Amino acid sequence: MLGAMHEYPSSPSRPVLKDCVTYYGVTGLDQDGRAPESVIEECQNAMARIRAILATHDLVPEDITHLAYMIPDSSVFASCQRIVAEVLGPARPALTLRVKPGFDTPGQRLEFNFIASP
Questions:
Q1: CA 92 to CA 96: how far, in whole Å?
Q2: In whole angstroms, what is the distance from residue 69 CA to residue 65 CA?
Q3: What residue spans of 73-117 are helical by DSSP H?
Q4: Domains of the chain by range and CATH?
Q5: What is each CA distance from 1 to 46, 62, 65, in whole angstroms?
Q6: Which of 2, 6, 36, 115 has the fewest CB atoms inside 10 Å of its own CB, making it the most exposed?
């Protein structure tokens, strides 16, 4: 999982986000690195990790401005969307759905990237 906090100089011609937090490769794998039995549990684990990452930057899920799902097929999206909506609350970030045929970990069904800003 990669993460970075960015501070870009502002320019009058181009608005930019200050203190933007970007993370790639957030998974819902168990502590032992294995995929959980259910996609629901995998999604819950990933959302818990996202909350923990945000908290280290004094942010909350409502501060997410873009959330990207990487999934092997659309059935995973439908199974996980309710959990994601509950975590995001009233926030409505831009969403990107990418079909990724496979992951390095056998049985893994999803991965998230996100951008958040206060």
A1: 12
A2: 14
A3: 74-88
A4: 21-116 (3.30.1330.40)
A5: 11, 21, 19
A6: 2
Amino acid at 53: I
The tokens for 96 are 């990107």
Tokens of 103: 């992951």
Element (H, E) at 41: helix 39-56
Amino acid, res. 42: E
User: What pTM does this model have?
Assistant: 0.84
- Which residue is it, tokens 């501060």? 63
Q: How many whole angstroms separate alpha carbon 96 and alpha carbon 84? A: 13
| Residue 98 token pair | 């990418």
Instruction: Give pLDDT, residue 11.
Output: 38
Here the tokens at position 13 are 């011609």
Virtual torsion, Cα 15, 62, 59, 84, nearest 10 deg:
-120
| Bridge partners, residue 115, by sequence | 22, 66
**Which residues pair with residue 64 across a beta bridge?**
116
pLDDT at 3 over 70: no
Retrieve residue 6's tokens: 């960015």
CA distances to 30, 69, 85, 86, 110 from 90, in Å: 28, 19, 8, 9, 23
